[in-house]
């Protein structure tokens, strides 16, 4: 190792041992701090951020029980739960090493040691510390991102009886760890419900990982969800954890679960039953501890009855169901949502916009909102950008293009899939094939639109 890396604290009552460690480690590490008095450990920890702590198991001369070492291990982990501690003892045996590791030590070094072996153990402990640091850094980032992302839409708006019922269910279910299935059309706020459940759960300090199952291709499914080891396939250049592993301790949100093919449903079911994942190319399963929240806009019970969605998987995921009503079915929410988004976008675009007039609210309430709140939000944003004065008038809201689409649509069938296909074709044509514009018009995300294009072979 050319560059000196890592800071090490070695604690042993035998000064000769410490001297030998210092001589061995000095050429390789950034700092090797030695200490004969374990009472001074807390002070060292407060002064320096050590990567690895080498800790003697017996401090009293002739002691062999290791009790003192265990006491200090406990103290160190109290001060820094992420500390990486290697026990040193001359009396090491299998039983004690197992006990030490159970108590939170990372590994075990037996005196007298072989230099090569000792160095190898220290390097791997150092790598572990590095990944622990990265993980905690990622967690902090995720927390920060969650707060930032939640901020503009922190308010989950809804005064209608339908939404009030949803809020009550969230409050009741969030702390229970029960698997939740969220049902509702596109843009009704399913992801908001999932995040609200996570925030109100006991796991709220941990990660919330959202996976759009509809956007993951069949071939990448396992590697994305369960991870892979280096060399498992051509593009696997390094070990990589999957989403389940990343979500462990926290919540995983599987969006668009109804889009999974039957073979992938079986793979998912196995993971949920065993509560462990095996990275692609590995043979050792990794236990996972997750809260599962799923969502779909499809008629999943119908699919289960028809055999396109596994009944046993449905039972696994829907301990509790939360159904989000479509926006057209909760007109009471239109005025509050309008005020909410006007507040957000007038701030974003630095505009002074008044509360919407009753005639504007009437117009917004009469429109059927096929893309639900997402579409509503886009319309408000677009209208604020295009409007001139502080008051929005009815004419500022251009909702007619949607009406035209449906007016000009010649239907020779009422099969919903065929209707959806026709509407998509029409809107795409209207936007000259521009997927972003078409998606926005349809109140869909680009990914959702792409998925539909694939589904209908467009
Ligand atoms: N009740 C609500 N209050 C405030 N904002 C909402 C509400 N419902 C939805 N939204 C907003 O609408 C947009 C769509 O919501 P979300 O992504 O949660 O819907 P979804 O049902 O998961 O959509 P999809 O099925 O397309 O994935 C988001 O920007 C969200 O913040």
TrEMBL record:
Domain Sigma-54 factor interaction: 156-385
Alphabetical list of InterPro entries matching this protein: AAA+_ATPase (IPR003593), AAA_lid_NorR (IPR058031), CheY-like_superfamily (IPR011006), Homeodomain-like_sf (IPR009057), HTH_Fis (IPR002197), P-loop_NTPase (IPR027417), Sig_transdc_resp-reg_receiver (IPR001789), Sigma_54_int (IPR002078)
Xref: PROSITE patterns: RESPONSE_REGULATORY, SIGMA54_INTERACT_2, SIGMA54_INTERACT_4
Example GO biological process: regulation of DNA-templated transcription
Residue numbers of 4-aspartylphosphate PTMs: 56
Keywords: ATP-binding, Nucleotide-binding, Phosphoprotein, Transcription, Transcription regulation
Domain of life of the organism encoding this protein: Bacteria
Gene3D superfamilies: 1.10.8.60, 3.40.50.2300, Homeodomain-like, P-loop containing nucleotide triphosphate hydrolases
Example GO molecular function: ATP binding
Pfam families named in the record: AAA_lid_14, HTH_8, Response_reg, Sigma54_activat
Protein name listed in UniProt: Sigma-54 dependent transcriptional regulator
Source organism phylogeny: Bacteria, Pseudomonadati, Bacteroidota, Bacteroidia, Marinilabiliales
